[in-house]
Amino acid sequence: MADTTNTAATPEAQTSRRNEKVGLVVSTKMQKTIVVEIEMRKAHPKYKRVMKSNKKFYAHDEQNSARVGDVVRIREARPLSKLKRWSLEEIVRRSSLALAEEKSAASVAAEAK
Length: 113
Description:
Blueprint: E1 20-30, E2 33-43, E3 50-60, E4 71-76, E5 84-93, H1 96-112
């Protein structure tokens, strides 16, 4: 008989069909939820001028790890609430404000001891 191997069964060979987007965190005021703004650039059909449009997505952040100003990657997920259909995949780049805030919090904690 012919030897057949199933390459799609290996996890590294499978590619996820879920959509991914990279954007900027604009709000973290809700618990376990971040608001990510995605900037899309598209050429005008007639005039060919590149137009910018922004869209906000609500994403689930389980550890509340993202801060305002961070650049994050979000992935499509099942509906978690009325507006949340995305989940935080990774923090691509921390904002300089978040880094300064963490340093000041660490120095205050060191002085308290």
